[in-house]
Amino acid sequence: MIMSKKTKTRHQATEKDSVYFLKLVIYILAGTLWIKFQDPMVILGLTLNGLPLGLLLGVLFASHDHFQMDRKIEYAVLLIVTILSYFLPAGIVL
Fold first, then answer.
1. Interhelix angle for 53-63 vs 71-87, to 10°?
2. Residue 84, phi then psi, degrees to nearest 5
3. Cβ(43)–Cβ(67) under 8 Å?
4. Do β-strands 92-93 and 46-51 pair in parallel, antiparallel, or remain unpaired?
5. Each residue of 22-73: pLDDT tens digit?
6. Which of 11, 21, 67, 85 is the most buried (most CB within 10 A)?
C-alpha cells in the first residue's frame, strides 16, 4: 500500500487584470492631484508653486496595499504622473 504525503499548498490569491488596471488608473488619477497656489509661496528661499497632495496620498495607499501589485510599479507610476502633471494645467488652484 502506497501512502501519499500530505503536502501543504498555499492558496495564492490572484488578481484579475481588471483589478490591476483599475489600481493603475487610481494611481494615475492620484498623481495628477496637486494643490497649486495662485501666488507662489517662498519658504526658506524655496519657491513653492504647489503641493503634490495626490503623490502623498498615493504613497500612503501604496505602502498599505496588501494586494499583489508590485510597489515599485506603483511608486514609478505615481512619480512619473506627478512630475508630468506639474507642468500641465491639472490640480486645484488656491
1. 180
2. -65, -40
3. no
4. unpaired
5. 888 988 998 899 888 888 899 899 898 888 999 998 888 887 766 556 778 8
6. 85
d(CA 13, CA 34): 34
Question: What amino acid is encoded at 75 in this protein?
Answer: Y
Q: Which residue has the cell 500530505?
A: 6
- Residues 6+ away with beta carbon under 8 Å from 88: 32
Nearest residue to 74 via CA among 12, 16, 23, 33: 23
Cell of 6: 500530505
CA–centroid distance for 31 within its chain: 7
Burial 1-24, CB ≥16 within 10 A → b, else e:
eeeeeeeeeeeeeeeeeeeeeebe
| pLDDT > 70? residue 4 | no
